[in-house]
Amino acid sequence: MKYVTKSLLLQSTLLVFSLNIFSCKDDEVAEKIPVAFKKSSVEANENAKASVRLELSKPAAKDEYVTLKVTSSTATFGVDYGIDNLLFLERNFTVLVPKDSSGASFTIHALADFEAEVAEKVNFVIEGTSDGLTTGDAKTLLATIGDVERYPDANRAISFDGVDDYIDLGNILDDLQLPVSISVWVWIDPNVADGSLPIFDSQDGLPLYNGFSLITSNISHIGVQYGDGQGENSSVYRRARSAEFIPVTGRWVNMTGVMRAASDMNVYLNGVEMGGYYAGESNSSMNSNSPNENAKVGILSNNGRTIHFQGKLDELRIWNRALTEAEIQKSIITKATSVDPGLVGYWDFNEAKGDNVIDKSSNKFNGVLKGGATRVPSEAPVQ
After folding, report:
1. Largest Cα–Cα distance of the chain, in whole Å?
2. What highest taxon heads this organism's lineage (predicted)?
3. How many Å apart are CA 158 and CA 54, to the nearest integer?
């Protein structure tokens, strides 16, 4: 009998303990804070933007995260729309809800693609949350992008065919030394063949590594390089820094390079530092004193071969100082002026006609279109 009593007592204790476990789990579920979209839809015309708000039923007790899934059969990320400063949108992205806040917002940028089309639609779904949140009732949002009625014809870019097109800027920048910053908006032709694509070379013509260059490719990468003027076809005469990233063909992106010294360079994509790696063994200073070479856009000749850029370029700028990351992020979306500190060359390519390209800096390093390079409308988001 005593054995039975102990057994019943043990079962009773286990039952109470079990009930307490389930009770704790229920309490934890009840404490999760619902998060939902404030609105079920937003609208924006091309060249505009719309704010999307995620709201909590009460302030978050700690930093929380909301994962969103994005789908669209009518719009392409980076071509038709963007989200804040995201560089690459795969299947999902995450929004931070800071501690003590009742929600968070992100911005949809409706990009002008210069195509006559019906409205584009982008769907957002709350896919998941961190452990302190749970999905509320309004878990989906539809963003509609309307077509622009008038295209900004005054904003132009230069299109290069990858065969013989380039811009000759003449014998300039012979006295330029490090530090140097260079920035340009780039649209790489999706049909381009594999290989390097030259954007700018400050000293092009002699069989020596002189001056500096900015190069990309369809794989994609950004590379800045300078030469010491002491030879060619060997890495001992040059120094470079490059970074690779997900291919960005068929969309406008900004590429910026900053060179301060042989082992102090950075490359940026849309204002975000991309890391990368150094190449070349030269520790000598950059040689720019090369009067027999011209600065060129869209072409590069060295090591016995010539390569051409295939795509579109806009808003090319060069400074004789090292821009900070904050300056880069601001400058890539705003028009430069001739009084910008350290600006030694600025070509916005907005001329209406003719073969001349005008340098808007105080140096007036005007250039000439060569090989049939053409003027086209620009979708680069610079105002």
Report:
1. 111
2. Bacteria
3. 41
Which residue's entry shows tokens 């043990």? 10
146/223 Cα distance (integer angstroms): 37
3-state secondary structure of 57: coil
Cα separation of 358 and 368, whole Å?
9
For 160, the token pair is 């290069």
| Residue owning tokens 């539809």 | 142
3-class DSSP assignment, residue 279: strand
What is the rounded distance in angstroms from the CA atom of residue 351 to the CA atom of residue 375? Answer: 8
Inter-residue contact 50 to 39 (CB < 8 Å): no
Residue 131: CB atoms within 10 Å: 10
119: helix, coil or strand? Answer: coil
Q: How far is CA 34 from the centre of its chain?
A: 33
pLDDT at 348: 97
Count the neighbouring beta carbons within 10 Å of the beta carbon of residue 326. 9
- For the four alpha carbons of 324, 326, 332 and 334, in that order, the dihedral sign comes to negative
Structure tokens at 57: 């039923």
| pLDDT (tens digit per residue) in 93-108 | 999 999 999 999 999 9
156-377, which class in CATH? mainly beta
pTM listed for this prediction? 0.74
Within the chain, all domains assigned CATH 2.60.120.200 are found at 156-377
Instruction: State whether the Cα torsion 256-261-262-264 is positive or negative.
Output: negative
Q: Report the top-level CATH class of 33-146.
A: mainly beta
Residue type at 314 in one-letter notation: D
Please say whether the beta carbons of 364 and 216 come within 8 A.
no
What is the residue type of 289? N
